[in-house]
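Students often ask why inverse folding is considered easier than folding. One informal answer: many sequences map to the same fold, so there is more than one right answer. In these notes we will look at a single instance of the problem. The structure comes first.
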C-alpha cells in the first residue's frame, strides 16, 4: 500500500491569509487558520471557544462519525454483533477509487469488527458502504437513517447525502459535529478502543497495514513521521478531506480526567488540521479548570422537599442526582446562580415514590467575565422512598384536612 507513504509527504503547513480552496478563513483571537472551529467540554457540553461554529460546511470523511455511531447503536440494540459476517455488496465493491478504501470485491465476507476498524482507522469508503448496505439494504436507505438520527440528536444544521462524506452536498456545522462526537463518547465510550488504533492489517496477505489518518494520536509520539503532531492524551476521532471541505478534523483529548472535544474545518493541509487543533487544546489546558458548583446528592435551597399525595408522608426530600460543574478561567471567581426549577404541582406527585426517582429539575447559570451565559440542568431525585399510605391513614388525614380548612374558613370571616 504505497499510498500510505505518499500521504506522509503532504503534511506541510504554510500560511495563506485569505484561506484555501475550501473557503475563506475567519479572524479569531487564537489565530486559527480555519473557516470554523469549536472547543467543547465532553462531560458537560460547555462550549469554551468557537469560530463561526454554526455555519454548515462539508465535513468530508468526518461524516463517518455518524455511520460509526449508528453501527454502535445497532450492536447495542442486539441487531448486530462485532462477529456478524457481512457479505460485500455490489454497491460497496464499486466504490469510486478516488478516496480511501481497502479494495473489497463483491461477495467478500468480513466481520463487522474488521470493517468497522477499516472505517475508523483507514477511513475506508468501501468498508463504510458495506456496513451501511448490511444495515439498511442500500447506502441511500442508510442515509435516510443518518438524517433521522441527526434529527433525534437535535443536529439542526446536519444534512447527510452519503455514508462516507465523499459528496460535498453533505453539510454540518462545527457545533453539531461536536455534539455528534459527544453523543458517541457518552453513549459508546468503546468507540475510543477503535479510534485510537495506530495501525491495522486488514488481511494477512496485505503487504502493509492501514495507518490511522489521525497523526495526532498520542501513540504516534515515537513514530518519526508523525511525532511532530502527536499530542498527549489524544485518542480520537476522525479526519476528512475533499476539495470543498478543506482538511478537517474532529478530535478528542483527555488529561487528568478532563476530556475535551474539538472540531476544525477547512484547514490548509493534512498537518495543519492537527497544528490548529493543538492550539485549541493548549488554550484549554492552560486556561480552564473545572469548578463544581453543586455536588451530587446536594440539597438545593428552596427545593428541599416536594409535596405529594397518598403517601405515608406528605412530602418527599429531594437532592441533585449529579454534579453541577462549569469550566471557568483559572483563578476566576465564577458567578453561578440558580435560575430555574421545575417541580410537580401539589396534586401531581402521587406515592409510592422510590429512592432515586426523578422528581424535577433545577437549572444553574454561569456568567463569565465577558457576560457570556452557560446553563446546566440537573435532575432532582427522591432522597428516600415514600410508601403509599393505607386507607385508614388517608381517611383520617382527609378528616383532619376538612376540619383544618373549616377552621381557617371561620377565621377568615373575622
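Output (designed amino acids):
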Amino acid at each position: 500500500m504505497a499510498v500510505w507513504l505518499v500521504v506522509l509527504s503532504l503534511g506541510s503547513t504554510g500560511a495563506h491569509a485569505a484561506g484555501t480552496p475550501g473557503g475563506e478563513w475567519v479572524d479569531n483571537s487564537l489565530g486559527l487558520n480555519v473557516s470554523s472551529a469549536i472547543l467543547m467540554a465532553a462531560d458537560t457540553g460547555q462550549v469554551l471557544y468557537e469560530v463561526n461554529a454554526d455555519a454548515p460546511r462539508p465535513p468530508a470523511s468526518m461524516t463517518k462519525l455518524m455511520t460509526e455511531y449508528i453501527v454502535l447503536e445497532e450492536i447495542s440494540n442486539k441487531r448486530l454483533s462485532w462477529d456478524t459476517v457481512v457479505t460485500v455488496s455490489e454497491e460497496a465493491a464499486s466504490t469510486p477509487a478516488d478516496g480511501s478504501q481497502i479494495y473489497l470485491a463483491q461477495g467478500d465476507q468480513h466481520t463487522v469488527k474488521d470493517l468497522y476498524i477499516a472505517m475508523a482507522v483507514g477511513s475506508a469508503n468501501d468498508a463504510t458502504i458495506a456496513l451501511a448496505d448490511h444495515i439498511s439494504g442500500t447506502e441511500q436507505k442508510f442515509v435516510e437513517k443518518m438524517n433521522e438520527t441527526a434529527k433525534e440528536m437535535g443536529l439542526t444544521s446536519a444534512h447527510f447525502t452519503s455514508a462516507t462524506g465523499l459528496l460535498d452536498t453533505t453539510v454540518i456545522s462545527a457545533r453539531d459535529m461536536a455534539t455528534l462526537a459527544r453523543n458517541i463518547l457518552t453513549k459508546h465510550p468503546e468507540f475510543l478502543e477503535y479510534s485510537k488504533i495506530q495501525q491495522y492489517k486488514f488481511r494477512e496477505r496485505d503487504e502493509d497495514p492501514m495507518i490511522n489518518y489521525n497523526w495526532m494520536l498520542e501513540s504516534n509520539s515515537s513514530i518519526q513521521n508523525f511525532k511532530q503532531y502527536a499530542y498527549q492524551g489524544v485518542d480520537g476521532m476522525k479526519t476528512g478531506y475533499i476539495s470543498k471541505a478543506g482538511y478537517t478534523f474532529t478530535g478528542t483529548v483527555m488529561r487528568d480526567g478532563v476530556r475535551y472535544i474539538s472540531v476544525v474545518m477547512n484547514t490548509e493541509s493534512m498537518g495543519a488540521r492537527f497544528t490548529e487543533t493543538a492550539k485549541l487544546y493548549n488554550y484549554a489546558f492552560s486556561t480552564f479548570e473545572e469548578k463544581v458548583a453543586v455536588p451530587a446528592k446536594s440539597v438545593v435551597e428552596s427545593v428541599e422537599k416536594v409535596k405529594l399525595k397518598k403517601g405515608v408522608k406528605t412530602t418527599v426530600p429531594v437532592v441533585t442526582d449529579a454534579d453541577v460543574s462549569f469550566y471557568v478561567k483559572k483563578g476566576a471567581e465564577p458567578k453561578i446562580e440558580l435560575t430555574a426549577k421545575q417541580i410537580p404541582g401539589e396534586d401531581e406527585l402521587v406515592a409510592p415514590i422510590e429512592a432515586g426517582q426523578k422528581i424535577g429539575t433545577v437549572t444553574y447559570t454561569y456568567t463569565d467575565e465577558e457576560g457570556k451565559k452557560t446553563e446546566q440542568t440537573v435532575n432532582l431525585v427522591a432522597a428516600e422512598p415514600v410508601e403509599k399510605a393505607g386507607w385508614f391513614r388517608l381517611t383520617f388525614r382527609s378528616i383532619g384536612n376538612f376540619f383544618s380548612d373549616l377552621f381557617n374558613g371561620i377565621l377568615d370571616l373575622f
